[in-house]
Write a structure and sequence with these properties.
This protein is an alpha+beta fold. Helices cover about 35% and strands about 15% of the residues. The protein has 10 helices and 10 strands. The strands form 3 sheets. The chain has a 5-stranded antiparallel beta sheet with strand order 1-2-3-5-4, covered by helices on one side. A 3-stranded antiparallel beta sheet has the order 6-8-9. Helix 3 runs antiparallel to helix 6 and helix 6 packs antiparallel against helix 8. The protein starts with 7 loop residues before the first strand and ends with a helix. It binds adenosine-5'-diphosphate and magnesium ion.
Length: about 300
């Protein structure tokens, strides 16, 4: 249990995200345990929507408890943050103490390995599906599934992290506009609700499935799939491909199971898209000889050196 931020010593910077955060590797001096500390820093001009979203990240992190989702051991605010009149204060910090994931993110793994073998992809996909199954059961839509938000540890566990734009589905639809992440993994109905939305699309569960499909395809192709090699996925190009483009052709190199899995995720019409529960029964993540074990995942991700 961590009861004071001053017990933690910064060891290294682990990452800067797209948002307001910096993540540090920290050491708990009394126990010598290693944790990750995410620090969100706000100046006094931060918009109230941004502060609200940060408070939501804290709320969700305190709520979740699953082996497939990053664990949070404490949330600290520097005083100014959560106070009722934070607009009048000089900004502040919001800090999350999280379990440390030695393998880094899937983004790091892809940078080092380019393409992943199918058994490793199916092992990862299965674990992410378990995480989404848990979150969706808790009425939480993640809304930012992408390689840099999927973390791996030295036990071969894969966990969903970064609830920076996540959303607790309440009875009434609540649209959150403080989106700061990338558009690259966004589903058609989130990109263009007028054309692709319709009844209840905005609850967004299907959007997480779309993003997972793109991540899986990227792991197989070794590059972001929606634009040409070396091309930058800018907003206009993405808009065209995601909302108006033909359905993607599946690479010949993929097995029929992998192709079918991705097809079911990248169905443009969210009503026809597979749900997480359907995908958990899909052969791609259930043919035992094809799904990597924790051990195989570790060996692949953290090669002995
Ligand atoms: P942001 O909301 O700014 O995107 P993230 O929570 O996604 O912040 O963290 C940014 C990066 O920091 C991640 O992509 C990952 O590389 C690293 N990181 C985050 N949390 C951890 C952790 N618990 N263990 C190891 N690395 C982490
Ligand atoms: Mg992130």
């Amino acid at each position: 249990i961590i009861d004071n931020l001053s017990d933690l010593e910064k060891v290294a910077v682990l990452g800067h995200g797209d948002g307001y955060g910096t993540v540090y590797k920290v050491c708990h001096k009394k126990s010598s345990s290693i944790y990750a500390l995410k620090v969100l820093r706000f100046d006094n001009n931060a918009a109230s929507g941004v502060l609200q979203q940060a408070a939501r990240e804290a709320e969700i992190l305190k709520l979740v408890d699953s082996p497939y989702v990053i664990r949070c051991h404490g949330v600290f605010d520097s005083g100014a943050f959560m106070s009722a009149d934070h607009n009048n204060e000089g900004g502040g910090d919001l800090c999350f103490v999280m379990e440390y994931m030695e393998g880094g993110s899937l983004h790091d793994v892809l940078r080092a390995r380019q393409r992943l073998p199918e058994n490793v992809i199916s092992g990862m996909a299965k674990r992410v599906l378990e995480g989404l199954h848990y979150l969706h059961g808790m009425q939480i839509v993640h809304r930012d599934i992408k390689p840099s938000n999927l973390l791996i540890n030295s036990r071969g566990q894969v966990k969903i992290a970064d609830f920076g734009v996540s959303h607790l589905v309440a009875g009434a639809l609540e649209v959150c506009d403080s989106y700061m992440g990338t558009y690259a993994y966004m589903s058609p109905e989130r990109f263009d609700p007028e054309r692709w939305g319709g009844d209840n699309a905005a609850d967004g569960f299907a959007g997480d499935v779309w993003s997972l499909g793109l991540v899986v395809l990227q792991c197989h192709m070794g590059r972001f799939p929606l634009v040409g090699p070396g091309q930058k996925p800018d907003w206009a190009t993405l808009m065209c491909v995601i909302c108006f483009g033909e359905r993607l052709e599946m690479p010949e190199t993929a097995s029929p199971e992998l192709r079918s899995f991705i097809w079911r995720c990248l169905e443009k019409d969210w009503r026809k898209r597979a749900t997480v529960d359907e995908l958990l029964h899909h052969p791609f993540v259930n043919t035992t000889c094809c799904v990597s074990t924790d051990h195989e995942l570790v060996n692949f991700v953290l090669p002995a050196d």
